[in-house]
Amino acid sequence: MKKSTAGIILLVVCVDDIVITGNDHAGISDLKAFMHSKFHTKDLGELKYFLGIEVSRSKKGMFLSQRKYVLDLLEETGKIKQSHLMPDDGDPFYNPERYRKVVGKLNYLTVTRPDIAYAVSVVSQFISTPTVKHWAALEQILCYLKKAPGLGILYSSQGHTRTECFSDVDWAGSKFDRRSTTGYCVFFGGNLVAWKSKKQSVATCEIIWIHQLLCEVGMKCTMSAKLWYDNQAALHIAIKENLVSTGYVKTGEQLDIFTKTLNGTRVEYFCNKLGMINTYAPA
Question: I need a surface site. Which of 44, 140, 161, 218 has the fewest CB within 10 A?
Answer without folding.
Answer: 44
